[in-house]
Amino acid sequence: MANILMVVSAADSLTMKDGSEHPTGYWAEELVVSHQTLTEAGNTVHIATPGGRKPTVDQVSLAAESAGGDERAQGFKDYIAKIDGELAHPLVLADVDVASYDAVVMPGGHGPMADLYKDADLGRILVAANKDGKIIAPFCHGPAGLLSATDDDGAFAFKGRRLTVFTNEEELGGGTGENTPWLVEDALKEKGAVVENGAAWSSNVVRDGNLITGQNPQSSEDVAKEVLTALS
């Protein structure tokens, strides 16, 4: 079975275009569904965050209307409580040796837009993982973390790679709207990534070699299953 590193944002707010602070963190469905799918298949998942800080769940993602009903919302809460020990004591991202892992998985929520996109330790991990052909699987806003990855010459490590991400349409229509400080889709395109969007709010997974990406929360399970396929 594989050892999987799950990199989670430690941010609990995002500074918006107007300067206000928007409470955020990781999106419950994304962390729960991917963690559960990967571990139930027999893999070991280690959670890591910047500074080893306990990640914050975005409270909006625990609301019934966001989670897909009261039962699913309660299921997410129960699972988060079940793995609270892991969440409370994550690995320090700066201390991670990627050689110990077979894959790097990055769930979203708006948190990665506040910290992971510019985290040098994550950049180091991703560049090394990519050079070794290890599976790298960010989804929804998780691909913001890819922006941290620059080679020794300063070039974007994923330039020219096919991927997907939470789209401008989804962000502006059902995310944080016009007050969003920057759009992850646009930022990745500007760096040279080839973004392949699917229909809004439907599962869309793009695989380009060792890079597996998902578009939105609805893609969480399919991303995890593609990771399992890639590791088999």
Give the key terms.
two-stranded antiparallel ribbon; globular; alpha/beta; single chain; 11 strands; 8 helices; 232 residues; 5-stranded parallel β-sheet
Structural account:
The chain has helices at residues 28-40, 64-67, 70-82, 84-88, 120-131, 168-174, 184-191, 220-231; strands at 3-7, 13-15, 21-23, 44-49, 91-92, 103-106, 135-138, 162-163, 194-195, 205-208, 211-214. The longest helix has 13 residues, at 28-40. It is globular, with a radius of gyration of 16 Å. The protein contains eight helices and eleven strands. The strands form four sheets. A five-stranded parallel β-sheet has the order 5-4-1-6-7, sandwiched between helices. It is an alpha/beta fold and 232 residues long.
Whole-angstrom Rg: 16 Å
- Count of helices? 8
Proportion of strand residues: 15-25%
Question: What is the ordering of alpha helices and beta strands?
Answer: EEEHEHHHEEHEEHHEEEH
Low-pLDDT stretches: none
Across the major sheet, the strand order is 5-4-1-6-7
Straight-line N-to-C gap: 9 Å
